[in-house]
Amino acid sequence: MAPYTWFVKAYDLAGSTTSSNTFNLTVNVPLPAKPATPTGIDSLCVNPANSTFTTTGANYATSYIWSISPSGAGTIMGTGFTATVSWNSTFTGSVQITVKGHNTQGDGPVSDVKTTFIKSLPAQAAKPTGIATLCVNPANTTYTTTGAINATSYIWSISPVNAGNITGTGMISTVTWSSTYTGNATISVKGHNICGDGSVSTGLTVAINPKPDQAAKPSGITSLCQNNPNTVYTTTGAVNALSYTWFLLPANAGTLTPDVTQKNATAAWNSTFTGIVKIAVQGHNSCGDGLTSDTLVITVSPLPGAASTISGSATVCQGQSSVTYTVPVSANATSYIWTLPQGATGSSTTNSITVNYNNSAHLGNITVKGHNGCGDGAISSLAIVVNSLPLQAFIPTGATSLCINPANTDYTADSAAYATSYIWSISPVNAGTTNGSGKTSTVTWNSTYTGNVTITVKGHNVCGDGIASTGLTVTINPKPDKTLKPSGTITLCQNNPNTVYTITGAVNALTYAWSILPSNAGTLTPDVTQKNATIDWDNTFAGTAKLTVQVIIPAVMA
């Protein structure tokens, strides 16, 4: 019950007043009526600013008591038609706001509930998935997330921003990559709703691998000769290269074989190639080929051409001099190298040489080859036959003892090396004449000549005469004189002791033949001179015995 004080004021025409006496009146006031349902925002996002709720009031209420449920949602303040909520920064969910009137009699009934929903931000998005290794200038690439709770859309990002451009607002995005970017790029996503953005996902690292840089120019020998030994060429490589390919042009110059590092390659040269060669190298990796290196230019100089046929005399004699030999000019030759047989001398570095053969020169080959700074060309060879003077002939063979006025006699010599014919001679020249130019010569003897004769022979060929042989001595014997009568005892007794008989011999006789008749008279034995003979008489013989001596003339003297 609330006390009230009443009084009355009276007014006259002039406006004056007169108050009555006061008196007290006690009136009984009821409890407040049910307030109207609070009004205010229907939904908010987490950690909102303070919010105001209002009611139109309740009869009999002199003040209001506001309530919020759950209490963890925040605190509500105000005792009038309006109340302010200070929200808990982390609360999300449904909140019930109520109000009731209050007066001296107490609290009226609680209003109907005003429900406000505190919405959450999206949860952290799931880490994107997709291709994590690419090569420079890749095609557009798609990345996906399984999403984030409370998200209504998604915000994708790529870092660094120059890696490319990412598009998409859903759980799938597409990256349009920069054509030149290499390195790591991070792709992330966050959920979004009306309240804002959720936490960014864990980033997906994508490696954009470069192609190799341009390979370093090869290094190595750049001036070579034809048919050069294998040569090694080297590159310092190319950044990001894992392997290398070597190039050699033209292909017929040879072959290149890399080692295990592929930064060194061995050139095996074609033995016939000459000219300009270019060597280059290119790096490779899983993303493709780098730029080919600058070219190393190599000059392969030719050897001299093969020497042509040598012109000049192929048959010479020992001792022959000033024999000229010539070969046509050989391509690419700057000089010439000549070789000569044993016993031949001469010197030249041109395509012509003058040769002298000494007396001991032998058959062999003259060779020549062109020469230059790269080496020697193929050899040309001319076989030289060096004709020797004949060697000394062997002593002739034939009859060495003849009788005066013998028949023509043949004499023979064994072959003399290098002789093509033979020259026979007889000394003294009045002993006779020789006939024949072969290994046999016939002597026609002077019919009256007696004494010793020397026969010699020497070989002959186009180069001249060899040394004459040792002479063969031939004796031309005169016929012997008649035999003289033997001398000795001519009257003997039967069974006489041995008796010696003697002859003085005959001029020019060589041997003698003794005989006794009858033969049973005894045995006749000449001594070594054959000018004395001993008779051993038969002891039974008696009678007349006849002793004779005959000169033996050899058949050649008959």
Structure in a nutshell:
The protein has 558 residues and is mostly beta strands. Helices cover 0% and strands 47% of the residues.
Largest sheet: 5 strands, mixed
- Gross morphology is rod-shaped
* Helicity range: under 10%
CATH class of the largest domain: Mainly Beta
Radius of gyration: 75 Å
Average pLDDT rating? 92
User: Ranges with pLDDT <50 over ≥5 residues?
Assistant: none
CATH superfamily of the largest domain: Immunoglobulins
The count of helical stretches stands at 0
Q: What class, by secondary structure content?
A: mainly beta
N- and C-termini, Cα separation: 214 Å
How would you describe what is shown here?
Helix content is 0%, strand content 47%. The chain is built from no helices and 49 strands. The strands form 14 sheets. Strands 5, 7, 10, 11 and 12 form a 5-stranded mixed sheet that branches. Strands 13, 15, 18, 19 and 20 form a 5-stranded mixed sheet that branches.
